[in-house]
Amino acid sequence: MGVIWTEEQQKVISLRDRNILVSAAAGSGKTAVLVERILSKICDPKKPVDIDRLLIMTFTRAAAGEMKERISAAIDQKLYDNPDNEQLQRQTSLIHNAQITTIDGFCAYIIRNYFHMIDLDPGYRTAEEGELKLLREDVMKEVLEEAYTQKDEKFLNLVECYANGKTDDEIRDMIYKLYDASMSHPFPEEWIEECLRVYQVDNVEELRNTKWMTLLWNAALESISEIEELLEHATHICREIDGPYFYETALESDSFLLKEAKERAAKRDYNGMASLLAAHKYARLSAKKDLNVDEEKKKQVKDLRDTEKYLWKELEEHYFSQSEEHILEALKYCRKPLEGLARITLQFKTAFAAKKREKNVLDFSDMEHFALEILMKKEGEDIIPSTAAKELSARYEEVMVDEYQDSNLVQEMITNLVSGWADGRKNIFMVGDVKQSIYRFRLARPELFMEKYHSYSLEDAKEQRVDLYKNFRSRREVLSSVNYIFRQIMGEDLGGITYDDENALYTGASFPEKEHVVGEKTNDPGNTTEVLLIEKDGEELSEEENGNQTVQEQEALAIAQRIRKMVGNEEVLDKETGRYRKVEYGDIVILLRSATGWAEPFSQVLTSKGIPVYSASRTGYFSAQEVVTLLNYLRVCDNPLQDIPLTGVLHSPIVGCTVQELAILKSRCPDGMLYESLCAYCELEQAELTEEEKCLQEKLCAFQAQLEEMRNLSAYTPVHELILHMLSETGYADYVKAVPGGVQRGANIHMLVEKAMDYEKTSYRGLFNFVRYIEKLQKYEVDFGEVNLADAGSGAVQIMTIHKSKGLEFPVVFAAGMGKQFNFQDINSRFLIHPDMGFGVDVILPEKRLILSAVHKQIIRRQLQRESLGEELRVLYVALTRAKEKLIITGCIGKLPDVCNALSVYMDHEEPLLPMAVRGKARTYWSYILPALARHPAMQELFHEYGITERPAVVCEKENAHFTVHKVTVAELVQGEILGQTDTQMQEKFLKEWDSNRIYDEEVHKLLKKRFSYQYPYAYLRDLPVKVSVSELKKRSWHGENDREEALFSEPDIVPLVPDFVSGGNEEYKGAARGTAYHRLMECLDYTAVDSESQIHKQITALTEAKKMEYEEAQCIRIQDIMTFLHSEIGQRMKKAFEADQLYREQPFVLAQSMKNIEKDWNGEETVLVQGIIDAYFIEDEEIVLVDYKTDKVRKGEEQHLIDLYHTQLEDYAQALERMLQKKVKETCIYSFTLGKMIPV
User: Quick one: which of 770, 800, 796, 795 has its CA closest to 785?
Assistant: First the structure.
């Protein structure tokens, strides 16, 4: 039965001749729809399109590969249903050349075909990440040295203001940051110039018209609005019956300030606002006491007012701490150093490009910019498409872009240029979901998607939007939970899109009722979304940054306990059978925001609890012990005067020194570096040493000799060969494979060898540069991740990052680490860059030793923070929408009573979308999730526990979302552990006392007996070969020819003066070598040059020189035997056939034979393939004469013995020839070189 598409999906498939934006929600089947659209275009009866006339771009190579496979499989299926369709037949060959690729792959295609337009060497290669880091460093060093030499005033001003201490690392980082940001723009130089214009403001009027001043007032109004809400809430509490009425006077004073501030904000009076906030003095709260006033309400009002005062203070410090004139002055101070930064960055860009050209390597951003250079040129503000762009545009009927929300400006321009944009055709098909745009760190611009989302029409139009909102992945319980949370936290102001009815998820998947299988009711409470709040007994979560891993371990322990309860008890739908079965470990995934510092402790805790676990988000490649040890050895090879690497090698299994032995080494030879101590210790007289010290000396001397050999080799040996030799000599490769996790460790070592081979393809050479290359990779945190073994994750709980999980689905999802602090490291750095607002820095006055906060930087910081929070929101959305059947949200949380009190403030908020004051200050995922859950009935029990009894406002009621919120305390975790240990001990005791002779259950005993006594009915087939050779058939009943071939004649033991093949002297080689030699000569024998022994001798010599025969084999041949054959009747007939070109030698064949014919005792009807090589046959009177050479040791009168031995083999040969040539075999014979005669068979 065919797929039934929804109305919206059918639109996506069938709409033509327009630009289409498909906003596809998570799990909406966008890939299936995209494939179907491609097929419908290929098979369109009116206007069919060839697959190579479609340009299909995806985000990753894996996605492109999968897309190509799916399209190919779909074409094959359609061709199977309609085999005579010529259009489909053509597509099966065109699919291999179709442009189903990544944007980088397409750029490479453009460059490959049009390299002449940009004067590029077509032999370029794509640089490896590590090589680029080294290259960047080298170029940066040269550029900075040149800049220091030239003593440019602006550059020196930049260094004076922003260099840190005695190094210029800060300057380097600023240049790198600006370079990387600029390369995501189509015109990097223009963008940098535009950024500088922010600092080229000359008067107050210009300042007021800047974009960032508008954003400043937006920020001010947002803070004022939040303050207003706080004041209203505090006043409301004061006016309650038992409220602190005497605080209202102070609140009224604050209301006057609020009113004044609102007026100044409305007039955009910056100086007025600054002076108002600077001059304001807060009225003190009344100290009056009244026993009728509730103390808790007094505290609430105090807290609300403290928050209000903090917001006023923050507003003043960040945005209104100076006058407009001072802001202008600050911008002028920043202008010169930033112009210096722009200039040096452009110099670096030019030098880096030149260095890459010199080495003929490209990186991915080069590919994009070169492709752009090929496709267009800019004249003023106009973009003029090139001839290449016009050619490509004419070639492609439609341009399809998957994951469009992750595009950047360069990619957008390339897409437009190869589409019908230039000649007014609308043929771009874009599909994506802005709610899943999670690659901001790769400079993706989701704004491009949103711009079209708002401008494209939902009605029939040339630029049309289609929304796919149905989710065909998850249960209703999962979707309603996701909708309930995101309706409250995602808005256009944070997250990029309003999560309303248009963007909510709707159930499209149908799950059968469980009662059909297990007799349960349909509404299974087991699918309710769970929230596990793992309490930290008041510890601050940020302590994790100080190396305290208890947060991760505690959460992992709670998850482990939940998994153990779930596996084997709860049920999920089996994808293959369509029936319910018990949850297995392989159904579960744990999703983490970051693998670093989380994946490892989670793996360890789960493993310690007996739960199989596989971490797909590995990071610690360079921290894997076997890799550390090898890298240490390489460092020591390069330079042994390094104490730390040398200690690592000595203490490793390569040398095997204990800590005590290292102490002995250093105490006996304390002078100098460790290597000098080692050399001195090796030279000590043995008489002075104890037995233990002698053993140590032996170890160290062996290592010293080995190291010396490695160091000598390293001068001329490629690094990968050096590593392989090192592994072989030390035996370390065998050691790591033998220890636990050996397969993984072996794969890690193999990966290091591969990395060394990759390094050798770069422009760098030698061990020193390789060590430097690896150190740079570590410095820049280029971690390859431990090798992921194929199928390693099957049957185990998987741990992966949320980014890795994008596009995947799992029956049970643990969204873990909800208490982890967001990483705002980039936002808090000294140099900030925003793609639209340029760059922001602090104002530094070196002569006054002053650092002042720049308002412009604060605005950029706020904007970047908002965008980061929006990104985190989208990451959370991706995490929660991976679940098919069960979603469990977990995280540690500190000071839960305080958190609950803070949440209660928003319980009566009636708007579904929470205020920006809540969402805009999130620091963890709990900061999003818990305020959203505060108004859900599931939280009320927890609130009641902490004395919060207010009734929450009812929101998102139609979602009918169900949650269970469970607080997990340390006491519960400990109790769970104790119970687990008790169960283990009881099981252990039970097994120890098990009586193997006793039958505990008769029924089970019978079942086990029946199963273990089972006999496989086709066991006899294990002896059935798929294919056998003729010689193997012979060996089934006789010893092989090779075992029987021995010396032809017994001759006196004479030392030959000439080679045996000349003299016909004695041979020392076995029959096997003789048989091979005779057969090879007969195969290659030229019958036109066999009139004398010297001619035969020449032929044997020629075969030896041509390496067709070994010299030792040649010595086995008796020329007299060959002459006897040639003078025989059969020899003469074969010579005649040779001259008539009718002689065929060494003819291979394959023949089907019944196994009964091969083995008389065989009972089955099976057939095997018999293969062999026929020595010789010739055609005589249109019939075949078959000849087989034998060198077996036989005596006269034993001819029948040879016939008995080989007649079956020759019958197979004859049968094969008759089938192949359709001619009759009239004669079959054996020629025995031992007897010197032909034997008819």
Answer: 800
